[in-house]
Design brief:
Two copies of one chain form a homodimer.
Chain A lengths: L4 H17 L5 H7 L6 H13 L3 E2 L8 E2 L1 H11 L7 H12 L4 H16 L2 E5 L8 E10 L2 E8 L4 E7 L6 H15 L7 H12 L2 H16 L5 E4 L12 H12 L2 H6 L10 E4 L11 E8 L7 E8 L4 H21 L1
Antiparallel strand pairs in A: 1-2, 3-7, 3-10, 4-5, 5-6, 8-9, 9-10
Chain A binds a DNA duplex through helix 2 and helix 3.
Chain lengths: 337, 337
Amino acid sequence: MALDDRKLDVLRAIVEDYVATQEPVGSKMLVERHSLGVSPATVRNDMAVLEEEGYIRQPHTSAGRVPTDRGYRLFVDRLSKVKPLSPAERRAIERFLIGAVDLDDVVHRAVRLLAQLTRQVAVVQYPSLSRSSVRHLELVPVSTTRLLLVMITDTGRVEQRVVELPEPTPVEDIETLTRHLNEKLVGAKLVDTPPLVQALADQLAQPAMNALAVVLLETLVERHEERIALAGTANLTRYNGLDLAGSLRPILEALEEEVILLKLFDEVKAGSALVRIGDENEYADLRTTSVVSTGYGPGSTVVGGLGVLGPTRMDYPGTIATVRAVARYVGDLLTQH
Amino acid sequence: MALDDRKLDVLRAIVEDYVATQEPVGSKMLVERHSLGVSPATVRNDMAVLEEEGYIRQPHTSAGRVPTDRGYRLFVDRLSKVKPLSPAERRAIERFLIGAVDLDDVVHRAVRLLAQLTRQVAVVQYPSLSRSSVRHLELVPVSTTRLLLVMITDTGRVEQRVVELPEPTPVEDIETLTRHLNEKLVGAKLVDTPPLVQALADQLAQPAMNALAVVLLETLVERHEERIALAGTANLTRYNGLDLAGSLRPILEALEEEVILLKLFDEVKAGSALVRIGDENEYADLRTTSVVSTGYGPGSTVVGGLGVLGPTRMDYPGTIATVRAVARYVGDLLTQH
DNA sequence: GCTAGCACTCGACTGTAGCGAGTGCCAGTT
DNA sequence: AACTGGCACTCGCTACAGTCGAGTGCTAGC
C-alpha cells in the first residue's frame, strides 16, 4: 500500500520528536506539537498503518511509537530537508581547523571538532596510502647493513620502515639508489608503483635494491597501512537506556578494531554522505548504531573517509550537514599543505 | 595506635577478597575463606579499629567492609607480595611483541597487550622527543618557497613540519643546508639542540636557514610534541556499580585529553612501578581510579612511560608485575630497532 | 474519510512486609 | 587481657499489591 502524504508527515513528525525527546511519542503529543490539522484518532489510524508497514513500532502495548530502522531509512531518503549549518558552526569549523601545522594536527583537530559538533563518536581516516602518490623517498643509513626507508606522500603522510640489507653497502651506493628511486617513483600513485619498483630492481640488479624492492612492495603497497583517529567516545554515555556490559562494551570494542572502522569508509564518495542505519551495518556489534560517513580529499577526489557514529536515534539532517562540511574543509586544507 | 600483625592480616584479606568478589566483605566470610585462626567476633573488633584508622569503611550500616584509598595504599606499600608472572603470560608478551615492524607497531602492540593482560585501560606514551636524540634530518623541497623538514630520532620516531621560506631558494642550497644540519645535529639530544641550531643560523646567515631555525626551535623543541596510544576503554564497562553519565563519562573524557594522560607519566622511573590510588591522582575526574605506571627505554634510561588505569579496586600485585614486564620488553625492543 | 468517545492494556511508581547479611556490644571463658 | 558466643538491631534488597495515567484499538456517528 502506498503511503499518502499525511502518513509521511506523521512519520516525519514521529522521527523528529523521538530524536528530540528520546521518548516514545504518542498520538496526542504529536498533534499538539505539530500542526497536522487532524485529530489524534486520525493520527492513530495512520500510525497503525505505518506500524503494519514496519516503519514504526511500539516498545510496549501501552506506550507511544518509536521509529524502526526502516522508518529512519525512509526519513533520511525522502523526508528530511537539508539543514544548513549555522554561521556559528561554520565559523567554529574554520577557526578550529585553520591553525593546523601538519597532517597529524589536521586529522586530530578534525576528529575532535566532529565529535564536539555532533556530540557523537567521530572517526577520521588518515589519507589512504593506496590513494596517495609519492612525493619523496629517502634512504637513511643506520648501519652498513641496515637502513631506514622514509616515504613522504602528497597528502603529507610520512611512513618509515627498516630495511635489512643482505650485504654491507657503501653510503655512496645508497645515495645513488635514493636518486634512482626518486627519479622513477616521485609523482606516481602508490597503486601504480609495483611495476616501476620491479623494473628498477631488474634494471639495477643490485642486492641492496632487491631488499629494498621487497620492503617497498610488501609493506607499503600490498599491506596498505591505514591509520585512524577517534574521538568523542565519552559521548556514548549519552545514550541513556542502555546497560553497560550489554550494549556499551561491544561498541567500544568494535571502535578499537581498526579493521572494522576502515570498513565504514569502504564505499564513501566525496560530496555526498553515506548513511548506514542500524541493521544495515555489516558488523553485528554496531547494529544498534548508525554511521554517517563521507569521503574527503583535494577537489572531488577521495583520499580518505571520515564520519560519525551514534545511536540510530540521531539527528540525521544535522549530522549529515556537519560531516559534509568538515569533510570539505579538511579536503581544502590538504590541497594547501 | 600501631596495628598489630593480625590486624594487618585482616586488612590484607579484606583487600584481596574485595578485589576478587567486588562485594563488601563481612567478618564471617573472611574467617571462612582465610585461615585467620580466630572467630568472626574478633575479626569484627579488628575491623572496628581498622575503620577508626581510616583503612576501611562501610558503604551502609548493615553491609560488609570495603577498603579505602588509604587502605589500598597500605596494602600496596607493605602487605602485598610480588606476584611473579606466569610463564604463559611471559610467553604471551614475547610472542605478541616480537613481530613488530616499526615504532608505531611496537607501541600499538604494547598497548593492546597491556589492555588484554590487565583487562583494564592501557596507555603507552611514544618515546618522548625531548629525551631522544637526532638520527637524521632531511629537507624535502615542495615548491621553491616551501619545504618539508623530516626528523628521525634514535627511537625511531619520525616527525615532519612544513617550513615556509622567506624567498625562493634553489635546490642546491637546500642540499647544502641538509648536509650542514646533519653534520651539526646528528647524535645530539634534542634538548641540547637549541644552541647548536642557533650557532648554525648565525654562522650561515642565510634566510632559508633562519626560517628553518625558527621551525626547529619552536615546534620541535619548545613545544615538545608528545604522542599517546590508548587501548582497552571497553574494559571500563567492567566496573559494575557505576552509572553511565555520572562516573564513566568523566573518565572517558579525561582519557581523550593528551595533556592529562601525559601527566600520568611525569614522575615515572624505569624498573619500578608508580602507583597512584584514587585521591592521589591529580585530576579530579580520575579520583575514582588508580593508575599504575612505569618508565621504559633502552637499558635503565627512560624515553617514555606506559601504564594502566583501572578502578581503585584492582589487582595491584598482578597489575604491577604486568606493567613492569611489558615495559622491560618494550625497552629491549627499542634497543634493537 | 475523519472524529469523539470509551473500554482496555500495561509500564511506572508507591507503600508495605519479610528476609538476611552484617554489625556492635556484652557477658562469659581461657 | 584477649578471645568467643550470643543476641538485639540496622538497613538494603526483593517481592507483592494497588494505583495512576499515557496511550491504544475499536466503534458509532458526523
